[in-house]
Amino acid sequence: MRRILPVLLAILLVFSGCGMQNTDKKDDDKLKITATIFPQYDFLREITKGAQNIELKLLIPAGKEVHGFETALSDISAVSESDLFVYTGSEDDNWVNDIPENGNKRLALCEIIKDYKDEHVWTSLRNAVVIVESLCNTLCEIDKTNAQLYKDNTALYIEKLNSLDKEFEAVINKSDTKALVFAERFPFLNFAKDYGLNYYSAFEGCSTETEAGIKTINFLIEKVKEENIPAIFTIEFSDGTVAETISRETGAEILQFHSCHNVTEEEFQNGETYLSLMTKNLYNLKTALLSNATGE
Ligand SMILES: [Zn+2]
Question: How many angstroms is it from 165 CA to the middle of ligand 1?
Answer without folding.
Answer: 22
